[in-house]
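TOKENISED FOLD:
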Amino acid sequence: MAKSTAFITTFLISLNLTFLFSTATTTYYESISPTLLGFREERFTHLHFYFHDIVAGPDPSMVIVAEPNGKAKNSLPFGTVVAMDDPLTVGPERDSKVIGKAQGIYTSISQEDMGLMMVMTLAFSEGEFNGSTLSVLGRNMIMRYPVREMAIVGGTGAFRFARGYTEGKFHYVDFTTGDATVEYDIFVYHHH
């Protein structure tokens, strides 16, 4: 009897330990409703603004942070990495109302064409989306296509769970200085 009681006790302890460890390793996640986090229904929003990449002058909004060895003939040779802190404005004029910044990097990714890989955060500082951001990632073949499409891969604040796309097209380009104004249309799903 004592042997069977010891066996049952040992069996129950090992069963409890097995359950305890298997539960601890399988419950690091759970499915929940977005409403538990305070999110309302999903919205679809269209944003329209202008992006100013300023190269010339005393206060450029972009700087080259890495260049390939041996300068190439064009202004952004393959392998060039640029950091940007570009103003976003309501209108195409540089002195138009600033609504945020495009902050991030772009890299020259094509040996044949003028192509960029854009990795940037659109940080809004005015209106309903003040303090919110959108994250953009994508290939931007600036000389091949008049309208370029890139992915919205996330966001913060009013743009939590964001997904969508952006279309960019030149409004103005000065090929001598490198200054450019790009018109952006963004179409994004998000919880607010």
In short: The radius of gyration is 26 Å. Helices lie at 2-26. The chain has a mean pLDDT of 87. Residues 2-26 form the longest helix (25 residues).
